Amino acid sequence: MSAYSSKTALEHARRDALAFSLANCIRALSIDAVEAANSGHPGAPMGMADAATVLYKNHLKFDATAPDWPDRDRVVLSNGHASAMLYSLLHLTGYEDMTKEQLKNFRQKGAITAGHPEYGHAKGIETTTGPLGQGIASAVGMALAEQIMAKDFGPDLVDHHTYVFMGDGCLEEGIGQEAISLAGHLGLGKLIVLYDDNGITIDGPTSVSFSDNIPKRLSACGWHVQSCDGHDAASIDAALTLAKATTDKPSLIAMKTVIGLGSPNKAGTESCHGSPLGAQEAAAAKAALDWTAEPFEIPGNLLQEWRIIGSKGKEVRMAWESRLAQSDEALQAEFLRRTARTLPAEFKAAVADARKALFDKPQKVATRKASQMALEALAPVLPELIGGSADLTGSNLTRVPALDSQFKRGEPGRYIGYGVREFAMAAAMNGMMAHGGIIPYGGTFMVFSDYARNGIRLSALMGIGTIYVMTHDSIGLGEDGPTHQPVEHLASLRAMPNLLTFRPADALETLECWELAIRNRNRPSLLALSRQAVPQLRLEESGQNLAARGAYILRQVGDGERALTLLATGTEVSLALEAAEKLTKDKGIAVAVVSMPSWELFKEQDADYRANVLGTCPRIAVEAAAKFGWATFVGDEDNVIGMDSFGASAPAEELYETFGITSDAIIARAKALLGL
Amino acid sequence: MSAYSSKTALEHARRDALAFSLANCIRALSIDAVEAANSGHPGAPMGMADAATVLYKNHLKFDATAPDWPDRDRVVLSNGHASAMLYSLLHLTGYEDMTKEQLKNFRQKGAITAGHPEYGHAKGIETTTGPLGQGIASAVGMALAEQIMAKDFGPDLVDHHTYVFMGDGCLEEGIGQEAISLAGHLGLGKLIVLYDDNGITIDGPTSVSFSDNIPKRLSACGWHVQSCDGHDAASIDAALTLAKATTDKPSLIAMKTVIGLGSPNKAGTESCHGSPLGAQEAAAAKAALDWTAEPFEIPGNLLQEWRIIGSKGKEVRMAWESRLAQSDEALQAEFLRRTARTLPAEFKAAVADARKALFDKPQKVATRKASQMALEALAPVLPELIGGSADLTGSNLTRVPALDSQFKRGEPGRYIGYGVREFAMAAAMNGMMAHGGIIPYGGTFMVFSDYARNGIRLSALMGIGTIYVMTHDSIGLGEDGPTHQPVEHLASLRAMPNLLTFRPADALETLECWELAIRNRNRPSLLALSRQAVPQLRLEESGQNLAARGAYILRQVGDGERALTLLATGTEVSLALEAAEKLTKDKGIAVAVVSMPSWELFKEQDADYRANVLGTCPRIAVEAAAKFGWATFVGDEDNVIGMDSFGASAPAEELYETFGITSDAIIARAKALLGL
Predict the structure, then answer these.
(1) What is the pLDDT of residue B202?
(2) How many CB pairs under 8 A join A and B?
(3) Angle of the B300-311 helix axis to the B83-93 helix axis, nearest 10
(4) Closest C-alpha to B67, from B94, B32, B102, B45
(5) For chain A, what is the radius of gyration of the CA atoms?
(6) How many beta carbons lie within 10 A of that of residue A383, not counting itself?
(7) What is the pLDDT of residues B186-232, one digit of tens each?
(8) CATH number for the B551-674 domain, one of 2.40.50.140, 3.40.190.170, 3.40.50.740, 3.40.50.920?
(9) What is A352-368 written as a DSSP string?
(10) Are B663 and B642 in contact (CB under 8 A)?
(11) B216:A220 CB<8 A
């Protein structure tokens, strides 16, 4: 049981009669939606309804009739299981697509009212939440984006807050702390978090597993911290007012609440967290709340009040529209371009120039270095590009002159030092993408994609173009050893739907992959880049971005009919080429070497193209990574020259020998396969 | 630059002449090892050498000649990049296998001195570290294990501390906070953390990305916090003494240090973090430290001092040995059994009884429920089994009567409420495994294996038998939607070397997989378990654990030569069976249905067995997960009835229809494939 009794809380909620009635609209709809679905989480919506009412009624800058207004305040429901509250709010305030029918179809097939808020399902869902901690971390990204956009376009066009609802789970998850620490460090004053301190977790009272002093902990991380009565409208309002007035620190408002407020027998207990109240208790709760309307019905006067709340931002928005219309023409165009997520006209030429430079003067460099070169060429024409690294800038080579301004407290810049916080980096980048106006990329060692993995997943699930720069992409990392050498990561990332995993073979392909990553604004890209140098393999301009096909015949070595196809990616393409040349020389056979920077894009090509690239002769794959998955191209894992185990600590060249990823091994397998 | 000047720090280090000289042995060896490798991290060992000296000299309970002594204090180097310090300490104190030759071969092929400490490479490496934050989280597991073992065997046999060295990175990583929060909540008084507060991170001063007030933050999490001068032996000693005297809270000692202390030009800067000092600076550093010995040489008197430190625990250990020898015979035998990681004699019978019960009365249950039933049967004979869940006990069904005692502050129990901290749960379980005497398992939703992923990887890399209970293993999760539905997870886990991924088909297979998970003490197991019920498919005792073969012919439906093989796992095996029966009925063909609970174990079978199971006829795979990887068994992903996308929010049965994972889809594919 929460220390805050349900009875007292209800009395406090009643102090402001209108606010109480409005909050009961949220409670009733949430109860109804969960009952109709016979699944869901009624407790959190019922507990947070009073705070949500005050936020939307008195503070939130939004216009339900123009949900895409770029300067709206953002609301993130980090405790995404409270989705019924968000849907109820969107319905009540008049978001057009959030109909009553949708509430009735909560959690059903085809409805926009999914179990957890899904980005893109409905206007007003600012980001996908549910996996705990990622909402607050994405909100940090939104707050970063707001500062960057405000710097670029001025406070007349960009000046909004990011509000977050958050529960205990987000504070228990490590990523929550990463986000809190980063936000405190950077003093994100427009980030305001409402912490639903209800003392209840799935397994029981939070005291089962959690006893942090949250106000003290966040204060230690540079936050402005307040406590308030989460059911007293005046208390909530005062806290929000003071939070908004505090501009140099992010704000936490720790709201003492009762989960499931109104439910006579379940309020204040875990039993109303993740299950419907049940018909009887639902009725009892409505009675306790003096709610007499039919399920999904909102009394006309209350609906009218809510609709006033939903449109109260209209004037502010129209004033903003005229400021935009009256602003400098170039600024206006640029603002519209960036918020529409279209690339600048100059991008194409910048790519062409960078290609030309590589053909004029081929480069033998590590692909991480090639990535930096690509960024040097492209960043100057992409003011929306925001870089960063999880404390590995010098290794990831993610910093370039155009992005050399470090994002500091009160001083937005184009390069973000995320610290040793890979997961928060991923989620913050997702938040920047969702916010709009920004193309974020961030670097770490590829092995630590593990730490950020569910953030990458959310990029893919949301369908947003977050870019991951993952260097040191194999045992080629060398001496740091197996903890730092990715092995299974390529396979595990390729298995993820809707993610473009790129592993370029040389400087030119790296540039091509970067072009693709930037062009793909509706799905994330991950670039797997090498520590070690590779020669440039393509020396003549074909006029085409060949990486865009996912795989292509880089070279056919030898004359006559193709006897063997070698498929390879990244640093192993040059190894495959070496083997092909030896095989041709020794055995007189023709060997096609296929570079395969992206499986996903290759699978999207038409059947003829794929058949032509793969050929009908035997195939061998070469990749310094787990063999898992390659059978789809080479039939049998025996035809993969790859890794069967974790790596080891030694110089890179020795590891390639040790693990048998050599041209000799390719040749031996080819001879066995072809009976030579 | 650190606020603490290198000059002052050096003066403080000199206050205790002997301690300074001893610390310089660590510094010199670390410098030499990194120089010889021409790669590595000299800065942290040089900065922490003074503290390490005081710890080993005055506090640490250990005996270098008996490194496996179960009651030794544990030392975890959470900032694993400081590995040279640990290797130096092991060499200096006389661990037999840590020879001078090994130090000279730091980071080289075949050496036990890997870039980061690798569990199993050498005695005295208590766990693998390097991926930041996991060391401290594993240390929390060790401290938990110590309390549990002390409760089971009494303080005469179990009474030791866990010491951790930790840098800023571990405090920036979210998992660090998860571990801190859990340790504070449970009041792990014998956990003592030495925080190397050197103010430097890879990208520069920590102020670039980190400004938490660490003492305040940890104090908010229930820690006993002290600050000390990390170069003043007396200051360090006093802090350690007080930390040991504080038994109701874990202790943080924030040591103000200078990275690379002694290096005249690089101390206090990031330049000595991850690169060799270089010959010139190495010489200058040695000069500044009055160090005149040749590389890798330790003056005889100092080596003697260190060897005294290394053997000072001998008497204490021998006293412990006699206490063990004199203890109750059964207790002694049980202690030896558990620390030797052998299973009790009763285990076999418990498995047999549980099997019999299922054959006597077949069960139609969700495999998560079957998992609970297996635990109910096996836990009573396995006192080393320690359960837990990341706040999803009621969903994971991880709690059973034998483990019903909740681990509380000051009151060790057999069930741990890890809170919403999946990653710390994984790492803590690894720590328990590494500590010895415990078989840990922990549950969460399978999709959140993402959050814990690098912890699972470390289980696999370390070769330890941590058990992961991952429920809600597919779109069968239903209404919670795509954020909560694993899709790519099976593939991504199967791609990981040395991990046993199990997906049992029914109650019996679940029991068999549990048996295998418990028997496999040298590699981790992950059980993917369903939310939804499945019928029991095997109804007659074969006398064999068939899951141990990884895959087996569950049933051949129809007469005559096998025309088709259906491979399936988990909840889809019954679907495959249904399709097989329809196909036989409609088309008169014989169809073999293969249940494939573990790809890894199947791949370990001999070729004949594999060929017999797979058959020579066409094959189709059925699994409600990404198709990725299945081509290795069925040639073409078109022959996989699986997922091409993320899931959706709706009732489970509807999702199976929506995503085409139905017996009709299997039949349609079979007809196309066989030309029927």
Answers:
(1) 85
(2) 347
(3) 90
(4) B94
(5) 28
(6) 18
(7) 999 999 999 999 998 888 898 899 999 999 999 999 999 999 999 99
(8) 3.40.50.920
(9) HHHHHHHHHS---EEHH
(10) no
(11) yes
Residue A63 three-state SS: coil
Inspect the interface and report whether the beta carbons of B496 and A488 lie closer than 8 Å. yes
Contacts of A177 in chain B (CB under 8 A): 174, 177-178
Q: Is the ipTM of this complex over 0.90?
A: yes
User: Active-site residue among A35, A118, A422, A572?
Assistant: A422
pLDDT beyond 80 at A3: no
Measured between alpha carbons, how far is A631 from B574 in angstroms, rounded to an integer?
A: 27
Phi then psi for residue A387, to 5 deg, are: -100, 180
Domains of chain A, residue spans: 6-318, 345-535, 551-674
Q: What does residue B98 show for φ and ψ, rounded to 5 degrees?
A: -90, 75
**Could B393 and A658 be called an inter-chain contact, meaning their C-beta atoms sit closer than 8 Å?**
no
What pTM was estimated for this model as a whole?
0.98
pLDDT of residue A2: 44
**In this structure, what DSSP letter does residue A410 have?**
T
Which of A208, A498, A628 is the closest to B629 by Cβ?
A: A628
Q: Which of A201, A424, A497 sits opposite B391 (nearest CB)?
A: A201
pLDDT of amino acid B3:
66
Query: Taking the domain B345-535, which CATH number applies?
Result: 3.40.50.970
Residue A198 marked in a binding site? yes
Summarised one tens digit per residue, pLDDT across range B67-126 is 999 999 999 999 999 999 999 999 999 999 999 999 999 999 999 999 999 999 999 999
Residues of chain A contacting B137 with CB distance shorter than 8 Å: none
Annotated binding site of B for substrate: 41, 273, 368, 395, 472, 480, 484, 531
Task: Report the C-alpha gap between B657 and B669 in whole angstroms.
Answer: 15
The backbone torsions φ and ψ at residue B192, rounded to the nearest 5 degrees and listed phi first, read -125, 120
Determine the pLDDT at residue B2. 43
Place of tokens 């989705």: A83
Most B-contacting residue of A483, A603, A646 (CB-CB within 10 A), to test interface: A483
pLDDT reported for residue B203: 86
The fold of the A6-318 domain, in CATH, is: Rossmann fold (3.40.50)
Strand partners, A163: A75, A192
* Closest partner CB to B216 (pick from A130, A133, A216): A216
Q: 3-state class of A40 per DSSP?
A: coil
pLDDT digit string, tens, across residues B466-512: 999 999 999 999 999 999 999 999 999 999 999 999 999 999 999 99
C-alpha distances (whole Å) from B268 to each of B87, B214, B254, B280, B542 are: 23, 20, 17, 18, 67
Give the CA angle between residues A17, A23, A24 to the nearest 5°: 90
The Cβ of residue B590 has, within 10 Å, a number of other Cβ atoms equal to 17
Q: Is A657 a catalytic residue?
A: no
Taking phi first (over 0 means left), then psi (-120 to 50 degrees means alpha), and beta for anything else, what does residue A284 get?
alpha
Fold match flag (B6-318 vs B345-535): yes
Name the residue of chain B whose CA is nearest to A217's CA.
B217
B115 and A393 in contact by Cβ < 8 A? no
Interchain CB distance below 8 Å, A649 and B118? yes
Mean pLDDT within A280-300: 97
Question: Kind and range of the H or E element at A184?
Answer: helix A174-186
The CA distance from A200 to the nearest CA of chain B, in Å, is: 11
Q: How far apart are CA B158 and CA B151, in angstroms?
A: 8
Binding site per annotation, positions of B: 41, 81, 130-132, 168-169, 198, 200, 273, 368, 395, 448, 472, 480, 484, 531
Alpha-carbon gap: B343 to the closest alpha carbon of chain A (Å): 28
Q: pLDDT per residue over B42-70, tens digit each?
A: 999 999 999 999 999 999 999 999 999 99
The pLDDT of A568-593, averaged and rounded, is: 97
Instruction: Write down the catalytic residue from B35, B178, B281, B422.
Output: B422
